[in-house]
Amino acid sequence: MKDKEEKEKIKLILDRGGVKKHIFLPSNIEIWSVVGEEGDYLVNDNPLFCTCKDFYYLCLIKKRKKMCYHLKALLLAKKKGKYTVYHFTDEEIGLFSKLVFNSLK
Ligand SMILES: [Zn+2]
Protein backbone atom coordinates (compact mmCIF):
# COMPACT_ATOMS: atom_id res chain seq x y z
CA MET A 1 0.00 0.00 0.00
CA LYS A 2 1.26 3.46 -0.87
CA ASP A 3 1.93 5.91 1.96
CA LYS A 4 -0.60 8.43 0.76
CA GLU A 5 -3.30 5.81 0.34
CA GLU A 6 -2.60 4.52 3.81
CA LYS A 7 -2.79 7.99 5.34
CA GLU A 8 -6.17 8.54 3.69
CA LYS A 9 -7.44 5.25 5.05
CA ILE A 10 -6.27 6.08 8.55
CA LYS A 11 -7.84 9.54 8.40
CA LEU A 12 -11.13 8.01 7.29
CA ILE A 13 -11.10 5.53 10.16
CA LEU A 14 -10.54 8.32 12.68
CA ASP A 15 -13.16 10.56 11.11
CA ARG A 16 -15.89 7.98 11.36
CA GLY A 17 -15.02 6.97 14.92
CA GLY A 18 -13.55 3.67 13.82
CA VAL A 19 -11.15 3.39 16.73
CA LYS A 20 -12.99 1.99 19.73
CA LYS A 21 -11.98 1.58 23.31
CA HIS A 22 -13.97 -1.00 25.24
CA ILE A 23 -13.69 -0.75 28.99
CA PHE A 24 -14.87 -3.54 31.23
CA LEU A 25 -15.75 -2.66 34.81
CA PRO A 26 -14.95 -3.09 37.63
CA SER A 27 -11.75 -4.82 36.45
CA ASN A 28 -10.86 -1.89 34.16
CA ILE A 29 -9.76 -4.20 31.38
CA GLU A 30 -9.27 -2.26 28.18
CA ILE A 31 -9.79 -3.76 24.77
CA TRP A 32 -9.25 -1.70 21.64
CA SER A 33 -10.62 -2.38 18.22
CA VAL A 34 -10.36 -0.72 14.84
CA VAL A 35 -12.98 -0.87 12.14
CA GLY A 36 -11.05 -1.33 8.92
CA GLU A 37 -12.28 -1.78 5.37
CA GLU A 38 -12.65 -5.50 5.77
CA GLY A 39 -14.12 -5.62 9.26
CA ASP A 40 -13.36 -5.16 12.94
CA TYR A 41 -9.94 -6.05 14.28
CA LEU A 42 -8.64 -6.25 17.79
CA VAL A 43 -5.54 -4.15 18.27
CA ASN A 44 -3.02 -3.67 21.03
CA ASP A 45 -0.17 -1.18 21.16
CA ASN A 46 2.03 -2.72 23.82
CA PRO A 47 3.05 -5.22 22.58
CA LEU A 48 2.01 -4.34 19.04
CA PHE A 49 -0.63 -6.71 17.86
CA CYS A 50 -3.51 -6.76 15.40
CA THR A 51 -5.80 -9.60 14.36
CA CYS A 52 -5.72 -8.72 10.62
CA LYS A 53 -4.00 -10.77 7.91
CA ASP A 54 -1.54 -8.03 7.05
CA PHE A 55 -0.21 -8.00 10.55
CA TYR A 56 0.10 -11.75 10.56
CA TYR A 57 1.89 -12.09 7.21
CA LEU A 58 3.81 -8.85 6.82
CA CYS A 59 4.66 -8.11 10.43
CA LEU A 60 4.91 -11.48 12.16
CA ILE A 61 5.95 -13.88 9.41
CA LYS A 62 7.85 -11.85 6.83
CA LYS A 63 8.85 -9.06 9.23
CA ARG A 64 8.60 -6.56 6.41
CA LYS A 65 7.02 -3.93 8.62
CA LYS A 66 6.19 -3.29 12.24
CA MET A 67 2.62 -2.10 11.94
CA CYS A 68 -0.44 -2.51 9.78
CA TYR A 69 -2.65 0.50 9.14
CA HIS A 70 -5.02 -0.51 11.95
CA LEU A 71 -2.19 -0.10 14.45
CA LYS A 72 -1.17 3.22 12.93
CA ALA A 73 -4.77 4.35 13.26
CA LEU A 74 -4.81 3.22 16.89
CA LEU A 75 -1.66 5.15 17.78
CA LEU A 76 -2.86 8.29 16.02
CA ALA A 77 -6.30 8.07 17.61
CA LYS A 78 -4.76 7.73 21.06
CA LYS A 79 -2.47 10.67 20.43
CA LYS A 80 -5.33 12.86 19.27
CA GLY A 81 -7.87 11.51 21.73
CA LYS A 82 -10.04 10.70 18.74
CA TYR A 83 -11.74 7.45 19.63
CA THR A 84 -15.06 6.24 20.94
CA VAL A 85 -15.35 4.74 24.40
CA TYR A 86 -17.77 1.95 25.23
CA HIS A 87 -18.42 0.69 28.73
CA PHE A 88 -19.24 -2.88 29.60
CA THR A 89 -19.40 -4.93 32.77
CA ASP A 90 -16.94 -7.75 33.39
CA GLU A 91 -19.78 -10.23 32.94
CA GLU A 92 -20.04 -9.10 29.33
CA ILE A 93 -16.47 -10.06 28.38
CA GLY A 94 -17.62 -13.51 27.28
CA LEU A 95 -20.33 -12.15 25.04
CA PHE A 96 -18.00 -9.49 23.67
CA SER A 97 -15.36 -12.08 22.80
CA LYS A 98 -17.98 -14.21 21.09
CA LEU A 99 -19.07 -11.28 18.92
CA VAL A 100 -15.50 -10.36 18.09
CA PHE A 101 -14.41 -13.85 17.17
CA ASN A 102 -17.49 -14.35 15.03
CA SER A 103 -16.70 -11.17 13.13
CA LEU A 104 -13.13 -12.36 12.53
CA LYS A 105 -14.15 -15.38 10.55
ZN1 LIG B 1 -4.29 -4.74 11.27
Question: Overview of this structure, please?
Answer:
With 105 residues, the chain is of the alpha+beta class. The model has no long low-confidence stretch (mean pLDDT 92). It has one domain (3-104). Helices cover 44% and strands 28% of the residues. Helix 1 (3-15) packs across helix 3 (69-80). It contains four helices and five strands. Strand 1 and strand 2 (29-35) form a beta hairpin. Strands 4-3-2-1-5 form a five-stranded mixed sheet. The chain has helices spanning 3-15, 53-61, 69-80, 93-104, and strands at 19-25, 29-35, 40-45, 48-50, 84-89. Bound molecules: zinc ion. Zinc ion is lined by residues 41, 50, 52, 54-55, 68, 70.
What integer value in Å does the Rg equal? 14 Å
Distance between the termini: 23 Å
Helix content bin: 40-55%
Low-pLDDT sequence parts: none
Q: What gross morphology would you assign? A: globular
Number-wise, the strands total 5
Strand content: 25-35%
Taking the sheet with the most strands, its summary is:
5 strands, mixed
Q: What ions, cofactors and ligands are bound?
A: zinc ion
Structural class: alpha+beta
The total of helices stands at 4
Order of helices and strands: HEEEEHHEH
The side-by-side strand order for the widest beta sheet comes to 4-3-2-1-5
- The tally of structural domains comes to 1
- Mean pLDDT, all residues: 92
